[in-house]
Write a structure and sequence with these properties.
One of its GO terms (biological process) is epoxide metabolic process. With about 400 residues, the protein is an alpha/beta fold. It has 17 helices and eleven strands. The protein is globular, with a radius of gyration of 22 Å. It binds 2-acetamido-2-deoxy-beta-D-glucopyranose (4 copies).
């Protein structure tokens, strides 16, 4: 009996997968000449459709001409150097390559935080918050007291995006599966066995919420987006709720986006091959399709720059991952369904609500999605808080987690 038990233990140990972590460098310069050739020979109309050279009809011709010109002159090697000033790694989980940035604080009690990007973004969305979060800095707690806090930061690439391999399953790939990868990455690959925090926006908010929902090793979640339909004005009425002016603005902005801004969502959810293949070797096409989202889902007076847009599009084009990235929508047809439920995790949740986001949830709805103990509104910033308002993003993470994060035994 005892020997059988021992054998089981030994077999179990042998089955436990060993993960290899390899240092990784961004090295895409060999792809750049082709990009510039394709871009240089692309033609655009010489004049706009009358009355349509404005953002109401998608990216305007004049904006696209400007961006195209800037992209032709773009110094990719400088960008690559900036990206490589962070430590990147890859590992293999269930035969899929997973890419991530991992920076460790020099402070021993640092809180591990996993931050997930969305579409059409990448890990680059969150590079501006990495170095500030590594430092020991002052957080302000809800009672006004202060505390020092620092973080170890992990920024993974979603499967199918830039340097992470596309999922191999023909059945598709949902947010829960990515959540499984993230928990394996944090606990088994990186050894954060006493728990970690998750954060995310767009699909990354959905993936972060599912990681929080499924894994008790997630000890706190700071979200800017939820895997449920952003709140509609009709829902607010049905719920007999009165919103603050800030919340009212958000619900209206979402309703406008639903009416005029989510055609891409339907296309990517239903015909991902068509759009993915059409854009695959079409840099000016990717520039139009992607820049519209970067520029229109953000705060016009926020910190987002054309350089952020061009780096974002370059990462998709140069890694040839636009096609696999749009399948995220097709694989998650119920990703933003109207149903609302509380996460199966009593750990604290925070919501950073940035005014210019296109998906917005009033506080009362956020409270139905998890143990909401932190809610903060920001006049500045929108759908890409790591790029359009990294300062407030960092302070939210510090203030929320300094007060509410606890390691497990
Ligand atoms: C990984 O690949 C091997 C070899 O092709 C295969 O036997 C195994 O089932 C795969 N594992 C998973 C989890 O897909
Ligand atoms: C790896 O694949 C196995 C077999 O399909 C599955 O049971 C397991 O949940 C997967 N692990 C992760 C982290 O997805
Ligand atoms: C809203 O108020 C109406 C009328 O008082 C009531 O019938 C309905 O149940 C309320 N809805 C909710 C969600 O409380
Ligand atoms: C929504 O669209 C209407 C009509 O274009 C506009 O008047 C209103 O300002 C928009 N609201 C928000 C919050 O963007």
């Amino acid at each position: 009996m005892l020997s059988q038990l021992l054998l089981a233990v030994v077999t179990g140990a042998c089955l436990a997968q060993a993960y290899t972590v390899k240092p990784f460098k961004v090295s895409l310069s060999a792809e750049v000449p082709w990009l510039k050739t394709q871009l240089a020979k692309s033609r655009l109309p010489t004049k706009p459709i009358p009355g349509a050279d404005n953002d109401d009809w998608g990216v305007s011709l004049s904006t696209l001409q400007t961006l195209r010109k800037e992209w032709l002159a773009f110094d990719w090697s400088a960008e690559e150097k900036r990206l490589n000033s962070y430590r990147h790694y890859t590992t293999v989980i269930n035969n899929s390559t997973v890419h991530f940035v991992h920076e460790k604080s020099s402070h021993p009690d640092a809180i591990p935080i996993l931050i997930t990007h969305g579409w059409p973004g990448s890990f680059d969305e969150y590079l501006p918050v990495v170095r500030p979060l590594l430092e020991s800095a002052t957080a302000t707690l809800s009672n006004g007291a202060t505390k020092k806090v620092s973080f170890d930061v992990v920024l993974p690439s979603i499967p199918g995006f830039v340097f992470s391999g596309a999922p191999s399953s023909a059945k598709g790939w949902d947010m829960e599966q990515t959540a499984g990868y993230w928990n394996t990455l944090m606990v088994d690959v990186l050894g954060y066995k006493h728990g970690y925090a998750v954060a995310g926006s767009d699909w990354g908010g959905g993936i972060a919420w599912h990681t929080y929902d499924l894994y008790p090793t997630v000890r706190a979640a700071y979200l800017n987006f939820f895997p449920t339909r952003p709140t509609t004005p009709e829902q607010v009425i049905a719920d007999n709720q009165t919103l603050t002016p800030f919340e009212q603005y958000g619900v209206e902005r979402t309703a406008n986006w639903t009416a005029t801004g989510n055609g891409y969502f339907v296309e990517q959810g239903t015909k991902p091959n068509t759009i993915g293949l059409a854009l695959f070797d079409n840099p000016v096409g990717q520039l139009a399709w992607i820049s519209e989202k970067f520029l229109q889902w953000t705060d016009p007076t926020g910190d987002m720059t054309h350089r952020d847009v061009l780096t974002g599009v370059s990462l998709y084009y140069l890694t040839r991952s636009i096609h696999s990235s749009v399948f995220q929508y097709a694989y998650n047809p119920a990703g933003f369904a109207p149903n609302v439920r509380k996460a199966n995790n009593p750990a604290p949740m925070g919501y950073g609500n940035f005014k210019w986001d296109v998906g917005n949830w009033p506080r009362y709805v956020a409270a139905q999605l998890g143990n909401l103990v932190f809610y903060r509104q920001h006049e500045k910033g929108g759908h890409f808080p790591g790029l359009d308002n990294p300062g407030d993003y960092v302070q939210d993470v510090r203030d929320f987690l300094a007060e509410h994060f606890t390691f497990s035994e």
